[in-house]
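pasting Glutamine synthetase for the record, 727 residues
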Amino acid sequence: MSTLRFHAIKETFNRPVIDVQEPARRSDIFGKNVFNDAAMRQYLTKDSFRSVQDAVTNGSKIDRSVADHISTGMKEWAISKGATHYTHWFQPLTGTTAEKHDAFFETTEDGAIEKFGGGQLVQQEPDASSFPNGGIRNTFEARGYTAWDPTSPAFIFGTTLCIPTVFVSYTGEALDNKTPLLRALQSIDKAATDVAKYFDKNVTKINPTLGWEQEYFLIDKALAKSRPDINLTGRTLLGHASAKGQQLDDHYFGSIPKRALDYMRDLETECMLLGIPVKTRHNEVAPNQFELAPIFEETNLAVDHNSLLMDVMSKIADRHNFKVLFHEKPFAGVNGSGKHNNWSLATNTGINLLSPGSTPMKNLQFLTFFINTIKAVNEHEELLRAAIAGASNDHRLGANEAPPAIISVFIGSQLTNVLDALEKVKNGKLSPEDKTDLKLNVVGKIPEILLDNTDRNRTSPFAFTGNKFEFRAVGSTANCAKPMTVLNAIVAKQLIEFKGQVDELIKGKKMKKDDAIFNVLREYIKDSKRIRFEGDGYGEAWEKEAKKRGLSNNKTTPSALKEQVSKKTIKLYEDLGIMSKVEIEARHEIEVEEYAMHIQIEGRVLGDIARNHVIPTAIRYQNILIENVQGLKDIYGKDFKKLASEQMRLIEEISGHIESINKDITSMIDARKKANKLDDAEKRAFEYCEQVKPYFEEIRYHCDKLELLVDDEIWPLTKYRELLFTR
Ligand code: ADP
Ligand code: MG
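structre below
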């Protein structure tokens, strides 16, 4: 066996048992490393505490002198917990998180102190010229700064105090994922509050909620390291399917293997300390695939928690000799990973606006937000698709894997019936009888628990699941900020439009409020019928039907991203004050650039593995065969052919594959060279997508065939069965 593979497998045999310590009650340690209300009450003056709370709920500015008080309290708290450093923690457009640690320690004239001032809390200027900026910051103005986001509490990870921040250029343009998200959340807060007031005057704030579900693979660290493709790209670029994969369905919800469970227990303890309210863990469909889900939270915090979680998961995995694979499709032939984004709207009065209620009025409120969301998705389905685009998610969307690249909304039969009935509402003012009938027989009859909205249609990318929408097409590597920015922005815009139309009917046609609401909703139901789909989202029939309905079906990232810079999108973002044209175009530039680089790296790695690992091994095996044939000839003379025929056939077959691989790699390199010459980043992305990527399948096909032919003893790459079934 090749040395790398051999040592990797040997290492897995003697894994030490890792001691996992768990508290008896998780609630005892929950949020212990978070500068939350309890910690603030202890370490801040009443006034400082109040000003943080005011900033959180009302977005008010924190005074510089108050910031000094807060930073001192925060520092004392952090030091009491063993922290030595602090960092502004932010989410640049690389999609991950960034941090630069500074010590509290400072020297003075007569010694040294621990210092952390208000200025250091509120704003920092990381030397950030190496983060993607899409041309926003010229080199002579290569300055960006991070600014404290008090709506997401500071926390301690390891020995570092982490302060969640936004990252913007000196001229104020967003350079991160958080800034547009915060602006979108502000938009929807305002828009949804205005609409919610139709039903309850006490509503003064709307918090969009997010509950993500993170899928991932756990692979033994040594085995993962033995594969150059996993190391450099996060996925396997080749590898023949294991004889046993997921066909027996014996992994899903099965008993969690002990080693994985120990990892999860350790991870969950860390999550508890960090205030990430993890709740659910289970095996997923593919072998060595798992899922983790928390209790939902306010969206900004939930997004931060997901980013933090992914970082923590990798770090804890290291301790357990695992590598976590977040890639959407690390292995061909078994399920890929996603990150469902469950989304709803919560009021300051404790109501979930997407939860049906017990009275007709509550249900009219529910229907208002429910139908407006559907309408928003209908109007902006293509932008929603763009929000989840990326080279790795392309392996799921549009590649016969859950869910399709076509965005549609599943609502279940009960609500379909309700919308069908509402569609028949009479135009104009309703008679008292009509209204009573409507309220009693349609709106009044929506059950509080929608039986068919649990999780029935797994093929839907955007499903209503009883009291929330579940956006299932989000990729497992995604930063949730992107889809959440789009979803909240489009619903905000929709609600503003809705309010305008309802008010117009009330004023112009002197309609009663609920008449007006019924009338507008009826039109929305008609307008957005095409987006509703209850059938099999994976089927070919749906692709045809969706095309007829005029829905987009952008199967690749470069084509999906186009909508991000359309006139319609620019108008949407500019109207809502979420992003300027410059910011939007910069983001697009970064994403197409990143896409091309992603495919470029994969192409290089695949070329290397195929040429420098697979082909030499195949030749070595071929030489063994040749030696064997030669030996048979020496012994049996001209009779050797009968005995050596199978070996000779193998020799030729191997040569055939080697030839194909070499030819394809040469063509792929040529295609890359051609693509690299293109100056325009978008064109380059298309070229990589259409001219370079198609070679991957071809090259892989022949390599995987060789894997089946060549002696297992000398095969250099750790095999699927070893990667997927080592427990
Ligand atoms: P399941 O889908 O497994 O039956 P749930 O419906 O309770 O379980 O929740 C699935 C996910 O949806 C969880 O991550 C949960 O936090 C999230 N979730 C539940 N209610 C809401 C809500 N109102 N807003 C956002 N996310 C929610
Ligand atoms: Mg789910």
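The chain has three domains: 31-176, 185-237+245-552+561-579, 594-725.
The chain has a mean pLDDT of 93.
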